[in-house]
Amino acid sequence: MSMFNNRFITIPSMIAIAISLLILIQVTIVDTANALSRYINCVTKVANNNGTVSMSNIENCYDKVFKGANDADDFGIPLK
Predict the structure, then answer these.
(1) 2-6, 25-29, 52-56: range with lowest mean pLDDT
(2) Cα separation of 76 and 73, whole Å?
(3) pTM to 2 decimals?
């Protein structure tokens, strides 16, 4: 009888864990897509204002949108 009761406890737990993981995955994907669109909008705004785009403008947009980018070297390793 105790095995029967444990099964009912674990099935809802497994469903809750699966739903939680799906929500986390969805939030991660949506947040990344949002950051990418903000980056593209920033580069487009700079290009429309100046008429040209330089590598420094692109890097400034990247650093503005993706926080912490200034704190890492070219390979993404955090600076000390």
Answers:
(1) 2-6
(2) 5
(3) 0.52
